[in-house]
Design brief:
The complex is a heterodimer of chains A (114) and B (114). Chain A is an all-beta fold and 114 residues long. Chain A has no helices and 12 strands. Chain A has a single domain (2-113), classed as Sandwich (Immunoglobulin-like), CATH 2.60.40.10. Chain A has strands at 2-6, 10-14, 19-21, 23-27, 32-38, 44-50, 56-58, 64-68, 73-78, 87-94, 102-104, 108-113. In chain A, strands 2, 5, 6, 10, 11 and 12 form a 6-stranded mixed beta sheet that branches. Chain B is built from no helices and 11 strands. Classes of the chains: A mainly beta (114), B mainly beta (114). At the A-B interface, β5, β6 and β11 of A face β4, β5, β9 and β10 of B.
Chain lengths: 114, 114
């Protein structure tokens, strides 16, 4: 069984300040973890993925995440927020045997203030 | 990466009717999945579409309500049967190509039942 908990339903930051979106996971397997972003009325876009290689993963648009097995966490960060980062973010754990069968967190809404 | 196309992109349907959503992948994928995203919510897995056999449904979803077909490795359909306003959601198709790889998502079908 696998599950994902996104610890914040809403995060608000000012433009140019750091972003931290928190995610904890539970998995019976060695997990594959992902962050997706969904802009209003748009499809899902993959930001980054962890699949048992380097624990610090760099993604698109300046985002990165660190896999910490001891803390069962996979937090998403960005050094400096941009207005265009405002969106819904989903942390996802994937069943490695299921080849893409994904369990989504509840999502975090990121608001960026000017 | 695979590209997934869904048709229709949106529809408004009368209660009691059925709608079939098509999902086409531009390359062969090992697994295909159907998800539902209710308004303001995260994605919930409906079922795994199995090629040439009955789909595997998640708890809370049944074949009579959501019949699924997958005649080959690149195509699947989801039917939402006997619709009610509670079925108003975005329905997304996704595909996976192997272990430790991310799932690819279609743009979704936005369904409104009136």
């Amino acid at each position: 069984a696998q599950s994902v908990t996104q610890l914040d339903s809403h995060v608000s930051v000012s433009e140019g300040t750091p972003v931290l979106l928190r995610c904890n996971y539970s998995s019976s397997y060695s997990p594959s973890l992902f962050w997706y972003v969904q802009h209003p009325n748009k499809g899902l876009q993959l930001l980054l993925k962890y699949t048992s290689a380097a624990t610090l993963v760099k993604g698109i648009n300046g985002f990165e995440a660190e896999f910490k097995k001891s803390e069962t966490s996979f937090h998403l960060t960005k050094p400096s927020a941009h207005m265009s980062d405002a969106a819904e973010y989903f942390c996802v754990v994937s069943d490695p045997v299921g080849a893409g069968k994904s369990t989504f967190g509840d999502g975090t809404t990121l608001t960026v203030k000017p | 990466s695979a590209v997934i196309s869904q048709k229709p992109s949106r529809d408004i349907c009368q209660r009691g009717t059925s709608l079939t959503i098509q999902c086409q992948v531009d390359s062969q994928v090992t697994m295909m999945f159907w998800y539902r995203q209710q308004p303001g919510q995260s994605l919930t897995l409906i079922a795994t579409a199995n090629q040439g056999s009955e789909a595997t449904y998640e708890s809370g979803f049944v074949i009579d309500k959501f019949p699924i077909s997958r005649p080959n490795l690149t195509f699947s359909t989801l039917t939402v049967s006997n619709m009610s306003p509670e079925d108003s959601s975005i329905y997304l198709c996704s595909g996976g190509q192997g272990q430790y790889t991310e799932a690819f998502f279609g743009q979704g079908t936005r369904l409104t039942v009136v």
